[in-house]
Amino acid sequence: MDYIVAGIAGVAGIAVGLLIDRMIKGSAYKSRDEIVQQAERDAENLRRDRELELKEEILKRREELEQKLDESRNALRDREREIDQKEVRLKEQQSDFRKKEQMLQTTQQKLTERTRAIDARQKELNRVLKEEQELLHRISELDRDAAKNLLLKRIENELSDEVGALILKHESNVKTECDRLSREIIGMAVQRYASAHTSEIAVSTVDIPSDEMKGRIIGREGRNIRAFEKETGVDVIVDDTPGVVIISAFDSVRREIGKLSLIKLIQDGRIHPTRIEEIVAETQKEMEEHIRRLGLEACEEVGIRGLHEKIVNLMGRLHFRVSYSQNVRQHSIEVAHLTGLLAEQLGLDGNIARRCGFLHDIGKAADHEMEGGHPAVGAELLKRYGESEEVIHAAAGHHDDIRPDHIYTVLVAAADAISAARPGARRETLEKYVRRLEELETLACGFPGVEQAFAVQAGREIRIIVDSNRVNDRQARKMTRDIASAIEETLTYPGEIKVTVLRETRAVEYAK
Question: Which CATH class is domain 203-291?
C-alpha cells in the first residue's frame, strides 16, 4: 500500500514538474522580445547621454582655451604698455641729458671766460701795484723793506677795527659754547675723580671735665706735665681757657700721640709719671699700627701692590703731614689717580703712572729726619727700598729740580699742579699772593693805551682803565682778548681771572 501511494505521489510530482517547466518556457519566449526592446532603448539613451557629455566637454575645453587666449592677449597688451612707457622715459632721459650737456658746456664756457677775465684783472692789478710801489718809492724815498713795514702797519690799523667787530659779533656764541664745554669738562672731571680735603692745624685741643683736672695734669711742682712732655715730645699749654688743654708740636704724629695719651690719662684718672710712661708707650704702639693701617688703606685705594713695608709706613705717616693746609696723604692719592688717568689717555702704563704719582711726595714723611728737600729725600728713600727708575725720577723731578727724562715725571708734575692749584685745595702765603697781584697789574699796564690797572676780587678779576682818545670800543674789545691771552701764557694762577676793560668818554662844558 505504501508502495502504491509512493508511486502515485511520484507520478504526480513528475506531472507537476512537466507542467511547471512548460509554463516557464512559455513565459521566457514571451519576455525575450521585451528584453531586446528594452536593451535597444537603453543603448539609445546611453548614446544620447554620451553625446551630451562629449558636447559639454568640448564646450568646456573651448571656454578654457578662450580664457587662456584672453589672458595671453592681456599680458601682451600690458607688456606693450610697459615697453611704450619705457620708451617714453628713455626719450625724456635723453632729452634731460642733452639739456644738462648743453648747460655744462655753457657753464664751462662761462668759467673759461671768467678765468680769462680774472687772469687779465690779476695782471692789471699786478701792474697797478707795481706802478704804485714805484710811485711810493719815488715820493717817500723809502727802500722796499721800509715801505713794506709802513704798508703792513697801515693794514694792521685798518684791520684792528674789523677784528674788534668780529670779536663783538662772535663773542656771545663763543661764550655760550665755552660755558657748555666747561660744564661738560668739569662734570666729567668730577665724575671721573672727586676727593675731599680738610684743613689741618699745628695744635690740638683736649677737652677736660673740669678745671680741677688742669692741676692734676700739671702735678706737684709740675712733675706730671714735665714727664708727659718728655715722653711724647710735645708742648702742653695749660692756660686760663676753661675746659680745654692745648697740645702743640711741629711733628703731627707726636702731637696725635700726645693727644690720645692725654685723653686716656684723663679717662683713667691715675696721672703720675709711671702711669704716663705706660700710657704713652701703649699709645705709641697703637699709633704705629694705625699708621701702618693708613698706609695699607691708601695702597688699596690706589690699587698698588708690592710696596716695601717701610714705604707703606711712610705713606701712613703722610696722613699727619699737611702742606698749605692740604693733607699730603690724600693729596698723594689724588695725584696717583690723576696721573693714571692722564697716562691711560696717552696710551701709557696706568699702573706705573699711579705708582709714580702715589710716591712722589714720600720725602715729606722723612724730610725732618734727613738732609735736603723732600724731592731729594723721597728719591733717596725710593732708591733705598728698590723702586723702579721711573718712580725715583718722578719723586726727584716733579718740582723741576732736575731735567725730566721720563714722561711719567711730566705727568706727575701736571697732576701735582692740578691737585694743588684747584680752588680750595691750598692756602697761598701772603708774599706769593701779593706778588701775583703785582704781576697781574704790571702785565696789564704794559699794553698801549692803558692808564691804570687794578687787581680785585683776590686776584680773580683785573679792571683796566684805558685812554678813550687812544682806544675805541672795538680796540677795547680786542685788548680784552689780548690781555687775557697774555695772562694765560705768562702767569700761573688757580681758577680763572676775569679781564674787564673800562673806557669812558666825558663831555664837559661850563655855563657862564
Answer: alpha beta
**DSSP structural state of residue 449:** T
Residues 6 or more apart whose Cβ sits within 8 Å of residue 245 = 205, 206, 208, 214, 217, 236, 237, 238, 262
**Which candidate, 364, 356, 353, places its Cα nearest to that of 391?**
356
State the Cα–Cα distance between residues 206 and 266, nearest whole angstrom.
10
Residue count of the chain = 512
Q: In terms of C-beta density within 10 A (0-12 exposed, 13-18 middle, 19 or more buried), how is residue 319 classed?
A: buried
Rounded to whole angstroms, how far apart are CA atoms 353 and 348? 8
pLDDT of residue 9: 63
CATH domain 303-421 topology: Hypothetical protein af1432 (1.10.3210)
* 357, 409 contact by CB (below 8 A): no
Listing from the earlier edge strand, what are the strands of the sheet with 450-456? Answer: 450-456, 461-466, 498-502
What pLDDT does residue 17 have?
A: 65
Q: Which three cell numbers stand for residue 419?
A: 691737585
What would the grid cell of residue 19 be? 507542467
Give the amino acid at 480. T
Cell numbers given for 297:
688703606
pTM of the model: 0.45
DSSP 8-state code for residue 406:
S
Fold that domain 430-502 belongs to in CATH: GMP Synthetase; Chain A, domain 3 (3.30.300)
Q: Which stretches of the chain score pLDDT less than 70?
A: 1-13, 15-19, 21-30, 136-144, 147, 151, 157-172, 174-175, 178-203, 324-325, 367-369, 371-372, 421-433, 458, 494-495, 512
- Residue 386 vs residues 79, 214, 314, 358: alpha-carbon distances, Å: 91, 49, 15, 16
Listing DSSP states for 180-219 in one string gives: HHHHHHHHHHHHH---------SEEEEE-S-THHHHHHH-
Do residues 227 and 276 touch, judged by C-beta distance below 8 A? yes
* Per-position b or e across 408-445, b if 16+ CB within 10 A of its CB: bbbbbbbbbebbbeeeebbeeeeeeeeebbebbbebbe
Give the whole-angstrom CA distance, residue 484 versus residue 294: 44
Alpha-carbon distances of 89 from 78, 167, 335, rounded to whole Å:
16, 55, 73
Q: What is the pLDDT of residue 195?
A: 47
Closest CA to 360 of 400, 395, 406: 395
